[in-house]
Design a protein that fits this description.
single chain; five-stranded antiparallel sheet
Length: 169
């Protein structure tokens, strides 16, 4: 009986264990854009890097999970500033949104208005440093955070792989 329990435990650990993902060193911007682009860690460093300070990471209930310190990053809207969107009118930008996706499939969404027309846009960062570790050395790089969120863990994205520009219908 003990052997059977041990085998079941080993099997469940193997089947349900999270796969270790390699850090991403770049991400693509695709979808409703005039020209797709690839953003690398090196190209991110060409933008203005801001001191973010520290951030309490909380879950969907607002419960404290951990604290990240010595955060630095580049605003997402700064990186998107060189992206031309496929639209027939600037008025339609209010219907655009950005699906930011990690290499594991986890997705975080921001609307165009949220990034460019509210204070939230001033706090959505691609992290360049966390806890004194540069982005290219972080085990879960590239990372994104929305420091203005109340429940910060929901839009804390690890291993950013792509940003897909879409339009609501």
């Amino acid at each position: 009986m003990k052997k059977l329990l041990l085998i079941a435990l080993l099997y469940s650990t193997t089947v349900f264990a999270q796969e270790k993902l390699n850090p991403t060193q770049k991400f693509s911007i695709t979808g409703l854009v005039v020209k797709q682009s690839v953003i690398t860690i090196d190209s991110i460093m060409q933008y203005k890097v801001q001191d973010i300070g520290e951030m309490n990471v909380t879950n969907h209930l607002g419960e404290f999970k951990h604290k990240d310190g010595r955060l630095k990053g580049v605003l997402l809207k700064d990186i998107l500033s060189h992206t031309a969107f496929k639209t027939t009118s600037h008025k339609l930008l209010s219907t655009f949104y950005f699906v930011c996706q990690g290499i594991d499939g986890y997705k975080v969404v921001y609307s165009w208005n949220e990034l460019y027309n509210t204070e939230v846009g001033n706090y959505v960062f691609i992290l360049t440093e966390k806890n004194g570790i540069k982005a290219d050395k972080m085990p879960e790089s590239l990372q994104m955070s929305s420091a203005a969120d109340f429940k910060t863990g929901r839009r804390y994205l690890h291993n950013l792989d792509k940003i897909i520009v879409k339009q609501a219908e």
